[in-house]
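Q: What residues go here?
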């Protein structure tokens, strides 16, 4: 059903088929940000063949008759990467039962719109870390890959792996309300069940796995600092993912849940709001990424209070926001791997770049923040050969902005042009 409806969005003008590239084109950049070198280069000419960068040359004339994208008035960067989004979902509201109010068909259309908004904002790659409707993210990824829908390159997790009634469940209403089964595909009871459910997710198209290791801020009946999945359950999930040559990330706010997830072998921690010094040292020692959404707390505090979100949401947000930012500052100083993840979907899609200023405010240089959303994020996703840079061999995913984002990182909130795979989409 979702697959059919995603294809149907072409009729609404949301499709942007990306045909096979048979031509060579050139992109003239006024300046080029090279996150691999950590440098801003002068004028460059990028030769693109079959959708990938073939060469980065000094600026100069192009062959007669060659196709040229002239961004000489702009600074060009690799397409940005957000490692924590929720495209195929409804968005956050004051209603705890919001996910139950939307059919799978509506989720398909919403996902298509969110994907396009994200791409137009300059985010050409994302890790979609879950929707309440199981496999809605997988179907959206496939629709984008087919060219039915305009959107970023995606990795999808299929469903949240969570304990019954935990941070990955739809909760907060009368107990006799029956939640649809497709919203409970990742609910596990013990390590053996975790193996079964994680295998099920991979069998149905998941690229990676998202564990809900602790309670959630935006879920009734759970506490952010409380561990939910056991270390054995998380280790079982990691073992299955490893056998399938994949990886696991863990939603974890609480300090003990964070450390338990790291010991279990996860590759990344989402949020890491209440991480302690021991957790930071453990992440550093194990080479684990922290994917910390440090803009999100301000949005929840402002909009959530204005729209009268549940008081327990607002309380938990207050308890985690500044602690998370202090943990981020410590992690930067300690040299922990940090990626760029926003939790877009809690706030409107397309505003992902608002987080850059917060990353700089809490300890990063602008170049480090850019690297978090390019080279570091690509490494987390195991896609370093394809995205996150514009050296030869990478996809021709790039954005153009006015000015120097290493001097004013908020420039990334105002993207002028976007290219994905050699096709100008904005």
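A:
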């Amino acid at each position: 059903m979702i697959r059919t409806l995603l294809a149907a969005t072409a009729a609404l003008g949301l499709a942007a088929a990306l045909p096979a590239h048979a031509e060579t084109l050139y992109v003239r950049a006024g300046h080029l940000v090279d996150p691999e070198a950590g440098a801003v280069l002068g004028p460059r000419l990028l030769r693109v063949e079959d959708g990938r960068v073939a060469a980065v040359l000094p600026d100069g004339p192009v062959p007669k008759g060659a196709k040229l994208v002239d961004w000489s008035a702009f600074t060009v960067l690799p397409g940005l990467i957000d490692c924590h989004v929720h495209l195929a979902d409804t968005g956050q509201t004051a209603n705890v039962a919001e996910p139950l109010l939307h059919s799978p068909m509506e989720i398909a259309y919403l996902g298509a719109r969110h994907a396009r908004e994200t791409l137009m904002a300059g985010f050409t790659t994302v890790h979609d870390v879950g929707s309440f409707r199981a496999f809605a993210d997988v179907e959206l990824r496939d629709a984008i890959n087919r060219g039915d829908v305009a959107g970023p390159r995606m990795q999808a997790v299929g469903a949240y792996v969570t304990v019954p009634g935990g941070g990955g469940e739809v909760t907060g209403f009368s107990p006799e309300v029956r939640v649809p089964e497709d919203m409970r595909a990742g609910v596990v009871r013990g390590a053996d069940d975790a193996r079964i459910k994680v295998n099920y997710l991979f069998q149905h198209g998941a690229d990676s796995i998202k564990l809900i290791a602790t309670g959630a801020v935006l879920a009734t009946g759970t506490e952010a600092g409380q561990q939910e999945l056991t270390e054995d359950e998380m280790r079982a999930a990691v073992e299955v993912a490893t056998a399938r040559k994949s990886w696991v990330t863990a939603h974890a706010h609480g300090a003990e849940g964070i450390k338990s997830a790291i010991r279990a072998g996860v590759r990344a921690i989402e949020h890491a709001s209440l991480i302690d010094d021991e957790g930071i040292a453990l992440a550093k020692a194990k080479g684990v990424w922290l994917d910390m959404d440090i803009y999100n707390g301000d949005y929840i505090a402002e909009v959530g209070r204005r729209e009268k979100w549940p008081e327990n949401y607002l309380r938990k947000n207050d308890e985690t926001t500044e602690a998370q930012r202090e943990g981020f500052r410590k992690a930067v100083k300690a040299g922990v791997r940090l990626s760029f993840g926003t939790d877009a979907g809690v706030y409107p899609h397309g505003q992902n770049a608002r987080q850059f200023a917060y990353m700089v405010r809490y300890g990063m240089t602008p170049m480090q923040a850019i690297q978090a959303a390019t080279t570091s994020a690509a490494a987390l996703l195991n896609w370093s050969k394809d995205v996150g840079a514009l050296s030869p061999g990478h996809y021709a995913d790039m954005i153009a902005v006015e000015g120097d984002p290493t001097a004013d990182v908020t420039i990334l909130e105002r993207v002028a042009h976007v290219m994905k795979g050699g096709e100008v989409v904005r």
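A: Context that may help when evaluating the design: Residues 1-21 have pLDDT under 50 and may be disordered. The first helix runs from residue 2 to 8.
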